[in-house]
Design goal:
Elements lengths: L3 E5 L8 H9 L3 E6 L7 H10 L4 E5 L4 E4 L3 H12 L3 E4 L1 E5 L2 E5 L18 E5 H11 L9 H12 L2 E4 L4 E4 L7 H4 L8 H17 L23 E7 L6 H9 L7 E7 L6 H11 L3 E4 L8 H9 L7 E4 L5 E2 L4 H12 L3 E9 L5 E7 L9 H4 L10 E4 H7 L8 H12 L2 E12 L11 H34 L2
Parallel strand pairs: 1-2, 1-3, 5-9, 6-10, 11-12, 11-14, 12-13, 16-19
Antiparallel strand pairs: 3-8, 4-10, 5-8, 6-7, 14-18, 15-19, 16-17, 16-18
Helix pairs in contact: 4-5, 5-7, 14-15
């Protein structure tokens, strides 16, 4: 018997006749199954796994494949045998009008648990690895949307997932950047059913690998009796934002509160006039602390460390980016009220996406309504962010600290906090988050997208390992009783 069964999830004009003929004529292909449905339901995946007779299963995930190299199947099969991988995927080319550009993917690691991890258009599964995983960890759940995600996670527990760094096919080109709704699809209400399934599958996976933290294990923040100069500090890291920083500060100064607060702006050696502007504003307002770090190598996270460890920092540290604004004069009050009422180590609000002129743009309000007090701290490992504005109990965040980077530092800290402490959520919009050409969240090139995704996956890897150690420690202590 030939070693490969190919499953094509859709069949239309985008999948070329040449590609189909290559598969049909290959000496490595035993069966080709063409589905009228997507590879997302448990019913479809389970039926395929019942029917497959070959050692390997090649899933064609996208219908925009333009060409496949003549030796692609041989190469993927060879590397699967050598590496004993449960899954093999490879790089590809984007084909546009008269052009062909390399589209590299990123390596899979333990923390690559996002349900939108990009495997490209082709995934080669070891049938033996699949059947062993399902026998050990249970059949694919009867889901509509999360079956392939469930399968991938189960296979990954005991088998390597191998990234073959050679382009073996091409697809009709998609846009390289990411903006607007696609960037926030996991919080879009119309995707709620999909996300609930993904969360259920992922939670089961965390339990299997010993990284699930039961909600009753989370602590409340202890009431801090230390001395702080004010009740709250708004922290604004800034570099070269002369056109927006004054608006950000003004939105803080307009806050109406029943407590004392100040503003700590960490000026990361701006060169565009921001420094002079801040010096002038600080001279007129004693509650505006203008810090210029001695170090020249700080990212946003490093600037946060400068602020929270400053003697000027208040009992609570509240985030505001230098591009953005609080949406009302009561934002600070709402945040600190929740700290007081709930004993949280961290509070996260909701925000509205706006353009530079503060007009709402899609997708509008980002409220992370997927968060639950029972499982939000686990599901946070699956999604790409937890929301804004973010605020911290200063005594706790000083003991944790921020990674000295300018991307993902907020995500890393939030995961670390919710590993151990309860997080409070506010689902009303408190914050106007600007998207504009000079913004750090503007459209990104593929290389930068890959770097960002790989970094967040590494954060998840470290966090999963840490949670496994916590659970092992709890098990060891119980076993000694």
């Amino acid at each position: 018997m030939r070693p490969i069964t190919i499953v094509i999830s859709t069949l239309n004009s985008h999948l070329s006749k040449n590609t189909l003929k290559l598969f049909e004529d290959s000496d490595l292909v035993e069966d080709i199954i063409v589905l009228s449905k997507q590879l997302t339901s448990g019913e479809v995946i389970n039926q395929i796994l019942i029917d497959v007779r070959t050692d390997y299963l090649l899933l064609i995930l996208k219908d925009n494949i333009a060409t496949v190299d003549s030796n692609a199947l041989e190469k993927m099969l060879e590397v699967a045998k050598i590496t004993k991988a449960g899954i093999v995927y490879c790089d590809y080319y984007d084909e546009g009008k008269g052009s062909r550009k390399l589209h590299p993917l990123i390596d899979y690691q333990m923390g690559s648990v996002r349900d939108d991890f990009d495997f490209g258009a082709m995934m080669l599964f070891s049938t033996e690895a699949v059947k062993d995983a399902l026998e050990k960890y249970g059949a694919i759940k009867p889901v509509k949307f999360a079956a392939l995600y469930d399968l991938r996670l189960k296979v990954s527990i005991d088998n390597p997932i191998y990234h073959f760094k050679e382009p073996l096919y091409s697809v009709f080109e998609n846009k390289e950047g990411t903006t607007g709704e696609s960037h926030f699809s996991y919080v879009d209400p119309k995707n709620a059913d999909v996300q609930k399934e993904m969360e259920a599958v992922f939670t089961g996976y965390l339990k299997e690998i010993g990284a699930y933290i039961p909600p009753e294990h989370l602590k409340k923040a202890e009431k801090n009796t230390g001395h702080f100069p004010v009740d709250a500090s708004v922290i604004i890291p800034v570099k070269n934002r002369v056109n927006t920083i004054a608006d950000a500060i003004k939105s803080v100064m307009s806050q109406k509160t029943d407590f004392t607060y100040n503003i700590i702006v960490v000026d990361n050696h701006s060169t565009d006039g921001t420094t002079g502007l801040l010096t002038g504003l600080a001279g007129k307002n004693k509650n505006l602390i203008h810090l210029i770090p001695e170090r020249q190598d700080l990212g946003i996270g490093g600037c946060w460390n400068e602020a929270i460890n400053s003697p000027n920092c208040g009992r609570y540290a509240v985030q505001l980016d230098s591009d953005d604004l609080y949406s009302s004069p009561y934002t600070l009050q709402k945040i600190i009220d929740l700290f007081r009422d709930g004993g949280y180590a961290m509070v996260i609000g909701s925000y509205t996406i706006v353009d530079f002129n503060l007009h709402e743009i899609p997708p509008g309000i980002i409220d992370h309504s997927e968060w639950t007090n029972e499982n939000g701290h686990n599901n946070a490992l699956r999604i790409n962010g937890l929301g804004a504005p973010r605020a911290f109990d200063t005594a706790i965040i000083r003991g944790i600290g921020f990674p000295n980077v300018s991307y993902g530092e907020d995500y890393a800290v939030a995961l670390r906090v919710c590993r151990e402490y309860k997080i409070g959520r506010i689902f009303d919009s408190l914050y106007l988050c600007r998207r504009w050409e000079g913004n750090t969240d503007a459209a990104l090139l593929l290389k930068k997208i890959n770097e960002n995704n790989a970094f967040k996956d590494s954060i998840r890897t470290e966090e999963i390992v840490s949670r496994q150690k916590i659970n092992k420690g709890c098990y060891d202590r119980l076993s000694k009783r």
